[in-house]
Amino acid sequence: MKNIVILISGSGSNMAAIVQAAQRERWAEHDGAKVVAVISNKADARGLQFASAEGIVTEVLDHKAYPSREAFDAALAQVIDRYDSPGQPVLVVLAGFMRILTPGFVNRYTGRLVNIHPSLLPAFAGLHTHQRAIDAGCQVAGATVHLVTAELDHGPILAQAVVPILPGDTADSLAARVLTQEHLMYPRAIAQLLRQT
Ligand code: NHR
Ligand code: GAR
Hints:
Blueprint: E1 2-8, H1 13-24, H2 27-31, E2 33-40, H3 47-53, E3 57-60, H4 69-80, E4 91-94, H5 103-108, E5 113-117, H6 129-135, E6 140-147, E7 157-164, H7 171-196
Parallel strand pairs: 1-2, 1-4, 2-3, 4-5
Antiparallel strand pairs: 5-6, 6-7
Helix pairs in contact: 1-7, 6-7
The chain binds ligand NHR and glycinamide ribonucleotide (GAR).
Ligand NHR binds at residues 94, 97-101, 106, 115, 117, 126-127, 148, 150, 152-153, 155.
């Protein structure tokens, strides 16, 4: 079985979209793949309740409880590696995960660590992407699925979705329009990645 571990920090709607696609499209049967654990760096992440209700193992690792980024990432890797084996490397999916990961962590999971970023990369790497796209006068915005490398939001692009920026848009209204597309794109991109590996 190809184990999928999803890392979240908040509402986890992308995580839920992936879990639901896996059920609907029978990834276990057709791709031998399964979401086995959801890990959050925040105890109050709403997505944890959804995952538990689906019978998925949940784990909280509070980054504030660790003395350094390296220590947090080492603890994270230790949990993830419970689901890893030489023949069946675990796929690590960042879904609204808000902690920058150290090179040591990223290099451990090269080629099997993916993120969804709420902009059309390479435009607007980093935070506050929707407000920055509005302020720049962009007519379109969107989201990007990419492999994670040590350089933030710079890994190889796997998929992108575009939405219009409309007159009167706020960061919130634009974020909602982008998020709808994320929910369609991210499960598809992961399914494609599963079929390649
Ligand atoms: N780590 C690496 N090494 N490379 C990437 O491409 C990563 C990553 C970790 C997370 C997601 C990313 C996004 O899609 C991601 C990509 C958090 C921050 C950030 O500044 C930036 C980008 C992303 C995630 N985090 C602050 C920090 O100090 C904390 C911010 C907060 O807690 O609100 O880690 O946008
Ligand atoms: C999504 O829009 C995702 O692209 C973005 O946060 C939202 C998380 O929503 N990710 C980042 O900003 C990463 N820094 P979700 O928790 O409901 O999936």
